[in-house]
Design goal:
Blueprint lengths: L3 E3 L2 E4 L4 E3 L7 E3 L14 E4 L1 H10 L10 E4 L6 E3 L2 E7 L7 E7 L2 E5 L21 E6 L11 H17 L3 E5 L5 H11 L4 E3 L1 H4 L2 H6 L7 E3 L9 E4 L1 H9 L4 E6 L8 H4 L4 E3 L7 H11 L3 E7 L1 H10 L4 E2 L6 H8 L1
Parallel strand pairs: 3-4, 4-5, 5-6, 10-11, 11-18, 12-15, 12-16, 13-14, 13-15, 16-17, 18-19
Antiparallel strand pairs: 1-2, 2-3, 7-8, 8-9, 9-10
Length: about 325
């Protein structure tokens, strides 16, 4: 199968399908609901029901644009698409995130999108899918990245929050607006810790509740009333808390917290290296379990991780992304 790695996404020309196109196209698969993937006004958008819900919440349709046709395709379901068969499988990245298996003329291609192998705090656990060709991300594709398991992350989050509150200090957790933020809130609420939540995180909580995740006792974040509760805020608000002069201790929950310099970068006292991406060992496991004859590495430490795979005997590459204009000229 021909695969074109372009700046705006990955294109499969023989079946007329994009993978995570971000600028607007005739038809694209959307792997998950983060804004760097679920964007662009497309003719047709295919994804899990949950991903399409996040996409719709983010969608801005211009005056001269039509609403995309939403085509839900949930885990284990299959559909025919221009002679190919498409089937999504869980990716454990955020709620609704999915890998895509494309079967075409006897070939099995798997596109992971953003992925992790371990069980997440919220969401489905990744299934390894046998394939001939694997397209995988490598956000943490270096051996220095060793991240916490689900249970370890829960213990660290709860211990930090309770320790701060016992000292009459406000614990503040930095998490991303979608995914990590809701996971941290869920952990705190399940532990019975009063929690105030930044609006950018709170707006997605109803989606998680509809999937059966409970958030008892949370309330909207108000800067004037933070005493006696844990805070969960987005990264841009962490600096404001640090500068507020209030009795706040900040915890940074991220894969980047695996590095000591994250303490300075995030203005954080506590580093909790938990991520919605796979760490180095998980990435190696995903590659091995796929049985793929060739691996394309498309995000993060692409060249180093592809080189490591090559040293272990794999056929692997870090494709350079080109613009659509370059591809058109080459085809012409």
């Amino acid at each position: 199968m021909e695969i074109q790695f372009r700046e705006e996404g990955i294109f499969l020309p023989e079946i007329g399908l994009w993978l995570d196109n971000i600028t607007g196209c005739a038809a694209t698969w959307i792997s998950h609901g983060h804004s760097d993937h679920a964007r662009g006004c497309h003719g047709k958008a295919i994804g899990t029901s949950t991903t399409l819900r996040f996409y719709r919440m983010r969608l801005s349709v211009g005056d001269n644009e039509e609403e995309p046709e939403m085509i839900p395709l949930d885990f284990g379901q299959s559909m025919d698409w221009n002679g190919a068969r498409l089937t999504p499988f869980p990716a454990s990245h955020i709620l609704g995130a999915a890998q895509l298996l494309v079967e075409w003329q006897g070939e099995r291609l798997v596109y992971t999108g953003d992925v992790k192998l371990r069980q997440p705090l919220c969401g489905e656990t990744t299934e390894s899918i046998p394939c001939d060709r694997l397209i995988i991300e490598s956000t943490f594709g270096l051996p220095i990245y060793k991240l916490l398991s689900r249970d370890e992350a829960i213990e660290r989050i709860v211990r930090f929050a309770r320790g701060c509150l016992e000292e009459n200090t406000t614990p503040a957790f930095i998490g991303y607006g979608l995914g990590r933020g809701q996971e941290i809130v869920h952990v705190l609420c399940q532990a019975g810790i009063p929690t105030a939540v930044h609006g950018a995180i709170a707006k997605f909580i109803p989606v998680y509740q509809d999937h059966g995740y409970a958030f008892p006792g949370w309330e909207p974040y108000q800067a004037k009333s933070i005493s006696g509760k844990a805070l969960v805020v987005v990264p841009t608000h962490g600096s404001a808390l640090e500068a507020s002069g209030k009795n706040v201790r900040i915890a940074y929950v991220s894969g980047w917290a695996a590095l000591d310099n994250a303490r300075t970068r995030a203005n954080a006292e506590e580093l909790i290296p938990y991520s919605d991406h796979a760490d180095f060992d998980e990435l190696l496991s995903l590659v091995a379990q796929s049985g793929a004859r060739h691996i394309d590495v498309v995000h993060g430490y692409t060249v180093p991780f592809a080189t490591i795979l090559q040293s272990q005997g794999y056929s692997a590459a870090a494709p350079q992304r080109t613009s659509a204009r370059t591809n058109i000229e080459a085809e012409g």
